[in-house]
Every structure is written in structure tokens, then in C-alpha cells.
Amino acid sequence: MKNAFVIGHPIAHSLSPVLHGFWLKKYGIDGFYKAIDVPPDELNQFTSRLRSGEFVGGNVTLPHKQAIFDLCDEIDPDARAIGAVNTLIMRDEKLVGSNTDHLGFAANLDQMAPGWDEKKGTAIVLGAGGAARAVLVALAVRGFTQIHILNRSAQKARDLANELPGPFSGHALNEFAELAGAIHLLVNTTSIGMHGTSFDNLPLSALPKSALITDIVYTPLITPLLADAQKAGLRIVDGLGMLLHQAVPGFEAWFGTRPEVTSELRDLLIEKLRQS
Ligand code: NDP
User: Fold this and answer.
1) Could you report the per-residue pLDDT of 19-46, keeping only the tens digit for each?
2) How far apart are the C-alpha atoms of 74 and 188, rounded to whole Å?
3) Does domain 2-99+247-275 have CATH number 3.40.50.10860?
4) Is 209 a catalytic residue?
């Protein structure tokens, strides 16, 4: 039997066991995926357990996404650019760290808004934290020609724009209105939206009617930003699909089957979110 895991601290809230458990059952795979609470001072010890062959790999969530870097034998280039590892794979007795969030972000839009990247146009990304880095890598890979990072702390946005290779510029959140007129895609990667919180001043009326709006926050599924965008007649995509799609490459590497993100899986996760 092949075993995989998600480690974090705390970890009880993680939806990953539901997601991977669904696929293991669906594809009839003799495997197991479980959540393991690993406090920061036990991370080193856990990697020894991993190297003993007990697991084929697993996911890494807060607070270990950076700390695990130094404990891996190899880090793939995307994880290095993003500055975080979310997926571990045991390969030829080596512990390999990768990051699949950028793939999950792009695959969600591929599925829900086909053609979203065809214009190779201009995007605004709200936020400059860990998740923003994955989204920025995805947009650069998909060929966006201008990507404005807007953040509460404008200096953090400017630093990130300088650090990452790509057509990035850093700004304050209050520059939204003057940049919005030429935008094809607006992405929220800040934690605003969680539990119904909203931006103080984000004039969506400044966006072109053709703009696509997506939020990577998925609790609630329709965040106030998405609800406002919908009211303004703009196309929206919610963030749950990013979570679903980022899990695909890990599952394939551990269990040898590329799983599908279906509406049945999405509905199951929505039900779990409703119950939590
Ligand atoms: P970080 O803590 O690294 O970054 C948080 C970001 O939000 C920063 O840019 C911060 O700005 C901004 N922010 C927080 N509070 C406010 C506020 N009151 N006003 C304005 N800006 C604010 O978090 P992550 O990047 O890791 O995660 C961000 C969100 O993305 C979370 O809600 C997380 O759940 C979600 N997420 C979703 C995923 C998915 O699969 N759908 C995957 C990963 C994350 P500043 O720099 O000024 O502090």
C-alpha cells in the first residue's frame, strides 16, 4: 500500500484528505492519505520518518512551507521561484520539494474560463504574500505582458516586482482606479474576503466590461469581491478550483494515476466547507 500525507500545525481543518481520499476510492488505488499534525520543532524528525520509506510523499501546509526547504535534497525551480514547497515526492530515495499552486491556479481558469490567457494581456494581482508569488509565476508563464502587483504595503509589492523575473510592477492598493482601465484579469490573493470581509475602496466600475475577476479565497465561495463583480456584470471564477487542481500533480506522482477534477468532487468539497 502507498501512503501519503498532509503535514501542518494545526491540520485538522485541511480538506486535502477528503480530496485525495475521493480520488483513491474513485480509481480503486490501494493507498492511504492522512493528515498529520507536525509542530515546527518536530519537522526535522518527520523528514527522517519520510526517508525511512513509510510514505511516497505528501503535501506541506502552514507553517512548514518555507522551513521544509532546507530539509529537502532537491527543490524544483518553480518552488524556488515561489519561495515555498507545498508538495513532497520521494524519488530515487531523494526528498524532492515542489510547488503546484501556480499550476492549480492556471488549471482552474483553464477549466472555468477557457481562453482566459489568449490575449496575453494585462493583469492586476491584489496582494504580495505567499500565494501571490504562485499566481505571479503562473501569469508570467502564460505570457501576460504587464502584471501590476497592488498591496496594502506598497513597498512589499515593489520589492516582489523587482525580485521575480517577469513583467511586474509594484503599487499601492489605492492606485487601482488609475490602472484598472486596461485590465484583462483581476486576481485577489490577499486574505481579504475570508469570512466575508471586503476591500474599503476598490472601484470595479473602472474595469473594462470584458475583464475576468477571480479570487483565490474560497471561504466563502463567492467572496464580497466576486459578488460585487457579478453585480457589475463581470465574469467571475471562484478559488475552490485552485485547491482542487493544485492537488493533481502530487496525486499523480505518488499514486501513478492522473486524477480528474470533476463537478462531483467540487460538490463534495463545497458540502464539506458548508459543514465546517
Ligand atoms: P500571506 O499572509 O502570505 O499574505 C497575505 C496578503 O494579504 C498580503 O498581501 C497582505 O498585505 C494582505 N492583507 C492581509 N490583510 C489585509 C488587509 N486588512 N487589507 C489589505 N491587505 C491585507 O497569505 P497567503 O498569501 O499565504 O494567503 C492569502 C490568501 O490566499 C489566504 O486567504 C489563503 O487562504 C488563500 N489561498 C488560497 C489557495 C487556494 O488554493 N485557493 C492557496 C493558497 C492561499 P500586507 O503585505 O500589506 O500585509
Assistant:
1) 999 999 999 999 999 999 999 999 999 9
2) 31
3) yes
4) no
Ligand 1 pocket residues where CB is under 6 Å? 101, 104, 127-132, 151-153, 156, 189-192, 194, 216-218, 239, 242-243, 246
pTM, to two decimals:
0.97
pLDDT, tens digit, 9 for 90 and up, residues 37-77: 999 999 999 999 999 999 999 999 999 999 999 999 999 99
CATH number of 103-241: 3.40.50.720
Q: Where in the chain is the domain with CATH 3.40.50.10860?
A: 2-99+247-275
Ligand 1 atom at shortest distance from the alpha carbon of 133: 25
Atom of ligand 1 nearest to the CA of 191: 32
Q: Which residue has the cell 460538490?
A: 267
| Residue whose CA is at the smallest distance from ligand 1 atom 12 | 190
